Amino acid sequence: MAVLILSSSSAGIASADREHTSKSSSTKKFYSVIMQDGADPWMYKHTDGFYYFTKTTGNNVTIWKSSTITGVDAAEKREITTGGQNVWAPEIHYLNGAWYVYYAKDDGDNANHRMYVMENTAADPMQGTWTDKGQLTDSTNRWGIDGTPFAIGDQLYYIWSGWEGTENVSQHLYIARMSDPWTISSERVEIARPTYDWETNHQPNVNEGPQVYIKGRTINLLYSASGSWTNDYSLGLITADTRKDLMNPASWTKREKPVFASANGIYGPGHASLTTSPDGREDWIIYHAAKFDGSGWNREIRAQEFDWNRDGTPDLDEPAAANRPVSLPSGEPKHTRYEAENAVFGGGAYASSSENGSKGSKAGHIDLPDSYAEYTIKIPADGKYILSARTANGTTGMDWSTLMLSVDGAAPTPFYITNKGWENWGLSTQLLELSRGKHTIRFSKGDGYGEIDFFDIVPADGRK
Predict the structure, then answer these.
(1) Which of 37, 208, 451, 456 is an active site residue?
(2) How far apart are CA 331 and CA 418, in angstroms?
């Protein structure tokens, strides 16, 4: 959850010694989490070099614009009203010289979930007007979600997850041709339904979350199956040849086993999108996973690099372990890291050992009204910076806790920490506007309780 604040850029520093700078290091590592809360991530890298990101956010469609993959949580965002409820799995695409948002919504009754599209002809989707282009459907007008468009040559196609009839028995994957980005122009054709043991181990059976990526002549259709509310949720793969008739179900081949499943302490990975690093040298998977064992639909968003097999299919391997640092995407700037245990503490706060902490220690016990952990950071140039902290919250009975974050003694703002349990680290971010020189960062008591493993400072514009 990113919260934009503009800090004081004055030379005054609240209480830390002006001559002192907290110990820092330079790092090109992070811990896979890019958003501490969310599901159904979609990330698209445009020709302007920016990443456009969206996820399920309730009754609206929210778009983030970021110069980096790992900085998306604190990036500029825009909310688009939909006039509906239960808006699921939006995607943003650039097609035929315009922007399109695809999403599903209902009127409060899941049986009425249908798919819709909006258009924006502005060069920047964060500007301009989003125009409702109406419902996307074939002649059956059946329940449908998770729609995604793609093109082979000049022909547009649309794939989605839907019901065969009017009852919630099983979700199948359907394909149809499109005459333009907002019109389905053929009857739907079923290309997949749950059949394998790993797809049918929970009721109702689902094939959902389709995403299409083309590598050479291979069309890769990643999809999610099993119970989305369980640890068994996984990614499957269906392939086709770009030269085949895609409206013929025989052109599509489904793998018998999932290609990305629970492992290494990460549970229920699913609904993934693929993108490239800022410099284009690496391929990355963006996916959601359960925040902890058995958390069901309480999910977070993670990212990691992957490779390609010789046959043009993605080699996703396994989810990176929660407490194993991985390299930042190639082309992203190094992070300046401040280990939280190196704070100036007050009011009873102190550092303690941490089983899963980056250096074996953490800052915590910020439990009293006058408790705090304070740091003096050094900023090389005027600009906007992301403060990205590895945080934990196990407060009983609270989904969210806050610490209060203040900069240079200014009024503090809430710093949100999702409840995953102690020693199960997540990610909290804030966007700061800072002038060149030294600044004081203070974390103090908020609602509930929270701990910090470390925090990073990185330019928000992705400059190195």
Answers:
(1) 208
(2) 29
